[in-house]
Please model this.
Amino acid sequence: MMSYEGMPVPVWMKFAVCIGFDLFDFTVGRLLLGVSLFSDVASAAIMYALWGPKGLFALWEVLDPTEQLDGFVPTNTLISIAASRK
Model:
């Protein structure tokens, strides 16, 4: 049985996408209170596509409806660091 490990693109490219999403979450994402749940779920879906099941750890951001705490935690970057190590 084969497990899903994410998209077959270079790790540096995945890392750049993760940093971009974290910068968006830290700046604009904190101001979009009406769409915060959607952006958190979309971010987790993209992390799943990039890193496989490890990317679903990004769903913890859904637990913060104020978007104030999760904006300061670079979740996607941390997932990329953890997932790229083998």
